Amino acid sequence: MSFRIRTFIYSMLIVIGTVGIVFAITQTMVNKQFLQLESQDIRQGAQRAQEAINKELDTLNQITENWALRNDTYRFIRDFDPRSANSTPPDAELESLDMD
Q1: Which residues, at least 6 apart from 92, have a Cβ–Cβ distance to it below 8 Å?
Q2: Which is it for the CA torsion 35, 41, 42, 44, positive or negative?
Q3: pTM confidence score
Q4: Buried b / exposed e across 64-77, counting CB within 10 Å, b at 16+?
């Protein structure tokens, strides 16, 4: 084998080895960073979903509270029980609707 061919083969082996090492290092670093970003994105998405659920629960709570007060009022009018006249304060309905 001539000197020129051996030099070319050794040079190619060095280039391929260097490219392989650089590729392995960058893949490891990039994969680690992508995993961190993906994990952060999942946490933020879960937090947003939890906040949306909590908001819906608060809204549902206000609606059911208002509905319960209306049911009490309907029952009072229907049955006309004087004892229940003071059982539910009228301000409670306004407070449940967040009105001033």
Answers
A1: 65, 69
A2: positive
A3: 0.48
A4: eeeeebeeeeeebe
Q: Confirm if 69 and 88 have CB atoms less than 8 A apart.
A: yes
How is residue 13 written in tokens?
């082996």
Place of tokens 């407070």: 95
**Rounded CA gap, 88 and 36, in Å?**
53
Tokens of 28: 């490891």
Give the contacts of 31 (CB within 8 A, at least 6 positions apart): none
Could you report the per-residue pLDDT of 46-67, keeping only the tens digit for each?
Answer: 999 999 999 888 888 887 777 7
What sign does the CA torsion over 87, 93, 98, 100 have? negative
In the numeric block, which tokens belong to residue 41?
A: 């994105």
96: tokens are 């449940």
